[in-house]
Amino acid sequence: MKNALLLFPFTGLLVLVMACSKNNSGSEPTTTTEEEKLPTVIADKVKDITTSAAIFFGKITNKGGAITDRGIYWGKEANPTGNKISSTAYRSDGEFEVSIKELTPNTTYYVRGYATNSRGTAYTNDVQFTTNQVPGAELFTDTMFAAGATTVFVAGKVVDAKGITQKETGICISKNADPSINDTKVAAPGSVQPFFLRINGLEPATEYYIRSYSTNIHGNTFYGQNVKVSTIQKGNVTYTLTQNPNPTDEEKAAYARIKVAFDEAVAYYNNFTSITKILNVNYVPGVPTADANINGTIRVGSNTGYQRTGTALHEIAHAVGVGQHTFWTNTLIKNGLYQGGFANSILRFMTRTPAEALKGDNLHFWPYGINGAHEDNGQEMLYITNVLIMQGMKKDGLPSSY
């Protein structure tokens, strides 16, 4: 019993010592992870620079943790904080790229890359680059033109746009060389190339300079070569319509139609030719269509289809020499072809057809001779081209009288 009593305290002491020994050894060991850091990112280069775009190349050399975003900030000032673009093109080795678009030509920009993880965002140094200057469009101004007294028809085209979208093209005109868009200009409709334009409001018998122009989407304007053009002296064609002093209703109606036709025809002659001629117009119901003599006499019949502007122009052409003068049959028409250079040049220019040529016989010419009511479509360009050809024929030597 004594031994047992002695052992118990000893045993308790032993247990106590052992318990104290465990507590002094510290807490249980725990698992630890490496602390995340800011990523390290560098700018590689900016390349593929154009007038309006560039590509930034960067690289994350140390992620520091899981990357949640990467890309660029760009602008016209150093250390840009606006115009953020996240990259959608990157590789596992940390390389990434970003396309920058809608830039202004010939402009300096700054760009810096960034990379973001849970600790924050790190940036590269700025990379400075300058977009390319806009190349000038190559333009052509046609040296051929067709002129009236206050109007000139001109043409041109954009030969090479240099890959830049052109917003507006056309012709500018001035009395001085090197006209610009700050002078008078006429823009071509849409993107039609080549362009053929009409310029109104000019002074008769006056020299002008024209040149084609083109303004691109960046606001840059470029010009073609200078071409000198001249308007013509205003024509002096007049007419008198002989009328019955006591007209019937039928005659009144015919006179009214004939007057409208010859008012318009004479206006075309005086604005688009320099011809001088006095005409005496008569309403003669027995005439099947209409006819004319080089002495200026014109007769119009009762067929209303011939009491129109096209017929009036056709008969005035006869009155000023077409099919009425020996110069027509002996010189200007041979083997069915018109021989004069000026009228053919005008025809080719106005129709934009280089191989076009006038044809004719002892009385008429075609195309644009309006040789019958069926050819009168009432279109202004038909009438203008007809009288411009007549102006060319006068320059080719066709006499207006014997």
UniProtKB/TrEMBL annotation:
Keywords: Signal
Signal peptide start-end: 1-19
Transmembrane segments: none
Top-level taxon: Bacteria
Gene3D superfamilies: Immunoglobulins
Entry-linked SUPFAM superfamilies: Metalloproteases ('zincins'), catalytic domain
Coiled-coil intervals, chain numbering: none
Protein name: Fibronectin type-III domain-containing protein
Lineage, top ranks: Bacteria, Pseudomonadati, Bacteroidota, Chitinophagia, Chitinophagales
